[in-house]
Amino acid sequence: MAAPLPPPPSPPPADRGGFHLAIVCALKLEVDTVSLLFDEIYERPYGRVAGDNNHYSTGRVGNHAVVLLLLPDMGTRSAASSAAALRIAYPNVELALIVGVCGGLPRIDGDDAFLGDVVVSKSIFNYDFGRQYSGEFVPKTTVEDTLGRAGRNVRSFLALLETEHQLGLLQRAAAGNLASLREAAKSRSRRADYRAPRRSSDRIFAADYPHRHLSGCAACAAEAFCEEAAGLSCAALGCDEDKLLSRRDRRPLDSVPRIFMGKVASGNAVLKSGKRRDEMARRHDVVAFEMEGAGTWDEVPSIVVKGICDYADSHKNKAWQHFAAATAAAVAVAMLGRYEVAGAGGVVPGAAAEDLSRQTPDRTAGSVQNLSVDNHSIGSHLVNNHTTEDLTALEHNKVSGHLLQGLNFQGGGNVFNFGGK
């Protein structure tokens, strides 16, 4: 017996007040990735507030009307000013997911973390806000100077996601989202490859082994920064493979990456030091490093959801960026599927559907629409309708077998496995 069809989508909100959720990205590749998982892109313009320099896209993800914002620049300052304007333009936004890529620790809470694994923030540590002494920079950590813990709504939501039942739903939805995202990219002939790169390229050198010329460079010999070395690959420099840490990812090749929850370090500087990475992890109990969360934190309730694309050391490269952006987008959209807006049963209805310029998505093959943000073309996007409520077919067709093997989640020192051993 065929499963009943889901109800038709609600029309877009009548005005900006009907939006309660936002997704914020710092890079075009991050927006290109997450937009593939929007069920619908609204063509209706909502106007701009005087003085707001942001340019937004809007659409539907599951039952939620969502604002999509691409920041003009990376970093906490750009994120803070843009988030403040977002809160004025869309005053009822109660949660923003900061979605994209980050640098991560190679080991979190006693377990190996690999490229493509996803970090979800429970709190934010602003690592470049502090005092510079003659030999050391000391971040501020007093209650008055730090960003503090998340609000009650965010804390309650994250606590819910840590329960085994909800984690099972979240992981299954994320698995389906990742498969759908890849299919969407393929059907639209996207140049980006959202498959995981070869496992052999996921390598981590000892924290005290720098990325530098082995000989013939005065700067490298003096252990100073060398711009030329920074622009070369490990193969070109001849980085000593005997300095690689011995690790083995035993998960199936097509398994969904692990989700870690914890404190995320955020600042304006890109971290490229294994020694500094490990030092901050020891001192401040952080699990990842990114550049926008500290900016949005005080302006709008935020959760950072980012895929690990490098290990925040001098050997980092961009080979894993698209896959990490895809895993982060898959988890973020799965989280939206588990989030309930207070007092709203779904998308807040607007004017009559016939008065709105929109397309009703084809629930089998999807429909294609275009959008742009601040002159950055986001291109054509496949509209999927896989929500956590529609998992029956998804579990059999896309999340069965090898996709569900090795599914696991880590938070508070606990690892939850779904389908793996």
Automatic annotation (TrEMBL):
Cross-referenced Gene3D superfamilies: Nucleoside phosphorylase domain
Pfam family, one: PNP_UDP_1
SUPFAM superfamilies per UniProt: Purine and uridine phosphorylases
Cross-referenced InterPro entries: NLR-like (IPR053137), Nucleoside_phosphorylase_d (IPR000845), Nucleoside_phosphorylase_sf (IPR035994)
Domain Nucleoside phosphorylase as annotated: residue spans: 21-322
Gene Ontology terms: biological process: nucleoside metabolic process
Protein name from the UniProt record: Nucleoside phosphorylase domain-containing protein
Gene this protein is translated from: 20342797
